[in-house]
């Protein structure tokens, strides 16, 4: 939809939401549940289709294409919610004083399209980090349905070798999903075990063992130093050539590596799962307090930013210095924003870290609180089939827990 379909001249500009991921659509749902008439405009750089992003790490083995994951097209969802959708549109500037945003489109006179707002919600999410060693033109990510769909089409041609760089939650889930789909998988991480940035070594050792027992080639304690395309000898078909991934051991890792020289592995595809970052352009323009790694700072009870009439939610937002990148709290966050925008009494958002579950069949991992690798972790119970550990804070109170279980053995 072209932005020229919208010309804002009324003083009642309503609500502008930037970003059509789960967070943005949850805010729309929450507002419409209590007010059917307030004008809402949704601005998004993509089509605005509604889908459940966590399904992306499980969809390949289930043979689901991108279209199978779409619950409603952006056009249909916008019509049902009675909102104005500006799809495939970029916000290039925000004026928090005039309460306007500038779009990358022009009106009928050729002037840049400007859109006013009474309240604005930043829900633009976060985007993958690509270290210099992972060139974006050669490396995939699965943080968005369109890129997932392109990768899924490539993998549908038959069994292939895929290298995944980064063994956090997403990388570890994708590794198992690809393996179940019949692909060969090499999982590379800076640490000696998956999930090492959030759990202690005693716990992650079990995860590493489970991952390797599946047949995933886990290379722990290595950093990728480069990815390059191998010319297959036919320039006309160079785009379908193999990729060579160079990696080398981390100096501070364990002594389990036999050598210190750079090594290589030849693969068909490389996927980056090396973390997320929030683009600083719009937060800076809006004058909100912001950290590139964790996101936009908000007032926890109201999810208001430090700029008047601007809220933030989802992957682009942080509370008390911690990024909020889980799906479970989104409905409660959206409800709070809706009540605050509509001037309704509310008790305030009560942020509670959600239970974290690793969606892998090879091992069950459940964590509560805000787990982190370092700290005073203590074993609560331990057996061959289960490990329970607790993280104690400076007040000797439990601030996080993790439970790791071996998968149940199928009955005969």
UniProtKB/TrEMBL annotation:
This is Nitric oxide reductase FlRd-NAD(+) reductase. It comes from the Bacteria. Belongs to the FAD-dependent oxidoreductase family. The keyword NAD does not apply. Its cofactor is FAD. It holds the Pfam family Pyr_redox_2. Keywords: FAD, Flavoprotein. Transmembrane segments: none annotated. InterPro entries: FAD-bd_OxRdtase, FAD/NAD-bd_sf, FAD/NAD-binding_dom.
